[in-house]
Design goal:
The protein has helices spanning about 50-55, 80-100, 105-155, 155-175, 200-210, 215-230, 245-255, 275-290, 305-310, 325-330, 335-345, 350-355, 365, 390-400, and strands at about 10-20, 25-35, 40, 65-70, 70-80, 180-185, 265, 295-300, 310-315, 320-325, 375-380, 385-390. Helix 5 (about 200-210) packs parallel to helix 7. The chain is α/β, with parallel strands linked by helices and about 400 residues long. The strands form 2 sheets. An 8-stranded mixed β-sheet has the order 6-7-8-3-9-10-12-11, with helices on both faces. A 4-stranded antiparallel β-sheet has the order 2-1-4-5. Among the domains are: about 1-70 and about 265-400, 3-Layer(aba) Sandwich (Rossmann fold), CATH 3.40.50.300; about 195-260, no CATH class. About 30% of the residues are buried.
Length: about 400
């Protein structure tokens, strides 16, 4: 699988926090995805996997942290900066009250930090709101620079044709959003398809929103993509309720792929499907990945599927990333007790091993003592990250014999 790899980072998530009131659904998660790889995100239900995916695609406005796609910041949250301002203001109040010898100096330092945090908030709001517009601007100027010299040389019929395609491309470019290059396949194929739209309308919707008006071109694309995902063109006139679960999921995949995205977030795309269909959908995603050079964030809780499909795996627990490694490394040397517990839960198709299989249960209160020494995500081996404190890091290194 590593033949897909190269070293260009397509998506970078830095200190992502997504809070809903007091609930910390995702808390300080960082990872990056290289172009062309499949990054698996696993963990039990409710650990923040889907929320991470939805935050990346801007279904939610993130609380704090930054998300970069193709080097451009597409999501930014401001809470961490606001908390910093609050903290510095409290320090200033305390210094004014207690008046230590170097009070003036320290107050000036705090004020400088407040000014810096305010500037960061402005930047974050700008990037979050304007990243798509900025991207459309660069596309428009690129198309102009391509077409203007050609138009200057052309004449007659050729010039007319060029003008027409120039106009069309400009219209599409103005409406193009950077975020549409990330598409999502949702978990529930029934709930994510509009029951009142035909399959053609569902698949073509993204193209229509993007300003493509040529009906023949849209039809052609819809038929092509239906055949790519293993359906037939006759299906285009039907409604979602006329299909089985696996076929509906294929329609969902077609809707995502028709936009020529660079990245797909597959949110448990097989958990609602029959086991025999699951393999078909996974194989379809694998074929599409080869054919279209897709990068995939694959969210699932079925670890055996993730191992087969992913290059690297991140394990989440209670909104935190607890371990991150290549898929072979994670299965060969799971270090975090939660990862061990997850791996021990994989059923094996062998009655004798199954009878002797030991389930490891994970109790964070018994496993970790974080009262004094707080944990951080650290690299134990090259590319193998784990959430631990100093004492645990030493223990893991001993376990690995380094």
């Amino acid at each position: 699988m590593s033949s897909h790899q190269n070293n260009e980072t397509l998506l970078r998530v830095e200190h992502l926090c997504q809070y809903f009131g007091p609930t910390k659904a995702v808390d300080d998660v960082s990872f990056e995805i290289k172009r062309g790889e499949v990054f698996g995100l696993v963990g039990e239900s409710g650990c923040g996997k889907t929320t991470t995916g939805r935050s990346i695609i801007k279904i939610y406005d993130i609380t704090s942290g930054s998300i970069y796609f193709k080097g451009q910041r597409i999501c930014a949250g401001t809470r961490s900066y606001r908390e910093e301002i609050e903290k510095q203001r409290k320090t200033i109040a305390m210094l004014k009250k207690e008046r230590p010898a170097n009070a003036a100096e320290r107050i000036a330092e705090c004020e400088a930090k407040i000014t810096e945090a305010k500037a960061e908030i402005k930047k974050a709001i700008f990037d979050h709101k304007r990243s798509d517009k900025e991207y459309a601007k660069t596309l428009v100027s690129k198309i102009k620079s391509e077409y203007e010299p050609l138009l200057a040389k052309a004449d007659g019929e050729e010039k007319k044709k060029l003008k027409e395609s120039y106009k069309n491309e400009l219209r599409v470019a103005k409406k193009t959003k950077l975020i549409t290059q990330i598409q999502m396949i949702f978990q529930d194929p029934i709930a994510s398809l509009n029951p009142r739209m035909t399959v053609r309308e569902i698949i073509a919707e993204g193209m229509v929103i993007n300003g493509i008006k040529d009906k023949a071109y849209i039809d052609q694309k819809v038929y092509e993509i239906l055949e790519t995902v293993g359906l037939v063109r006759e299906h285009a006139t039907r409604y979602p309720h006329e299909f089985s679960g696996g076929q509906r999921q294929r329609i969902g995949i077609a809707r995502a792929v028709v936009m020529n995205p660079e990245m797909i977030i597959a949110d448990e795309p097989i958990s609602a499907l029959d086991v025999s269909i699951q393999a078909q959908v996974i194989n379809l995603l694998n074929d599409l990945r080869d054919k279209l050079g897709l990068t995939i964030l694959f969210i699932a809780h079925d670890l055996s599927v993730v191992k087969y499909f992913s290059d690297r795996i991140g394990v989440m627990y209670f909104g935190k990333m607890v371990e991150l490694a290549s898929s072979d490394e994670l299965f060969a040397h799971p270090l975090h007790p939660y990862t061990k517990s997850l791996l021990s839960a994989i059923p094996l198709p062998d009655p004798i091993t199954e009878r002797n299989r030991k389930r490891i249960s994970y109790n964070p209160l018994a496993e970790h003592d974080y009262s004094v020494d707080k944990p951080t995500l650290r690299e134990i081996l090259p590319g193998h990250w784990i959430q631990c404190n100093d004492a645990e890091a030493e223990r893991y290194k001993k376990e690995l014999g380094i």
